[in-house]
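protien #1 (seq + structre)
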Amino acid sequence: MDDNKQKLQEGLNKLGLTLSTVQQLLLLEYVSLLKKWNSTYNLTALRDESTMISHHVLDSLTLLPYIEGTQTLMDVGSGGGMPGIPTAICRPDLQITLLDSNTKKTSFLQQAVIELGLTNVTVTGGRVEAMHDKKVDVVTSRAFAELADFITLTKHLLNDNGYWAAMKGVYPYEELEHIPDWVEVVKVEKIEVPMLAAERHMVIMKPKS
């Protein structure tokens, strides 16, 4: 466990994040839960906790600078809770909805939210297009769908000043070409995830006013 603790601490330093001891312990506890329930719920292809720290936790936390000042967020196609759960641990003031249509995954998410004591998180099962009772400041996803589909499926979830934060791997040239003309791409930024040798990009988009 100490190696994982050290790896997390190093990663947080590289990301410029200062978290309390309790928050760091919760992130490690989340990784333990992922590992524990993975064989039952098929949450991630990764098997060891050390890799989960870089590929899931630190990767999720690259979202934080892009959601400063927001109060509500929805993580669409949350799966094992990335990026929603690590974000919720770091931003207890942020109301987060984790949405997934897979009942096994929502069972795990419910379990994790209870065990981690995350009072700022709601877990919702079902298809994103059927979700009509909530509007949020930010809709995010990690590898949920191509950008055009992501926008079309979730546009009804944004409040008046809401925007999308899509977490992508390599620079999504083709996907950006297919974005609807009523959407403005605010920025596409390359992200460095500590201890992860893979390309990552953040795509911030909003409806044109």
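ok now protien #2
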Amino acid sequence: MKPLVAIIMGSTSDLPVMEKAAKFFDEMEIPFEINALSAHRTPKEVESFAKNAREKGIKVIIAAAGMAAHLPGVIASMTTLPVIGVPIKSSLDGMDALLAIVQMPPGIPVATVGIDGSLNAAILALQILSTDNVELQNKLAAYKEDLKSKIVKANEELAAVKYKFKTN
């Protein structure tokens, strides 16, 4: 089974954040690979990964990084595959990583989600994958319907909560 998505982290310390994406892909039955590669410590490995990702069957890359956060942009500079950047909150409340990922030069786009937003990155990756795949479109629609159901149920539970001055 070939991976459709690659989750790349600058360090294994990013796994607690990126685990949400991995669990989502497992739930959706999307084959993925997950690796730690550093733009600064393992640049040759990053280059090899980026240049060979398409041949491995990868269609979307999710790259997470904190602090200087060069990894998503470096990968995007070496591939034509879509890259989704996940800024990791490691210093400066993650703003340094967010700005480093979102402020790419013209010609090197990186779609960027919120700080520690790996679940949204995974959902966006699935949306990209589903553009020409009805089965994936159906999985995505069911997932979003489940989100709606959870809110409806939460409101029903809130209606049962009693407070002296509550009006609904």
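Residues 5-133 form a domain with the Rossmann fold fold (CATH 3.40.50.1970).
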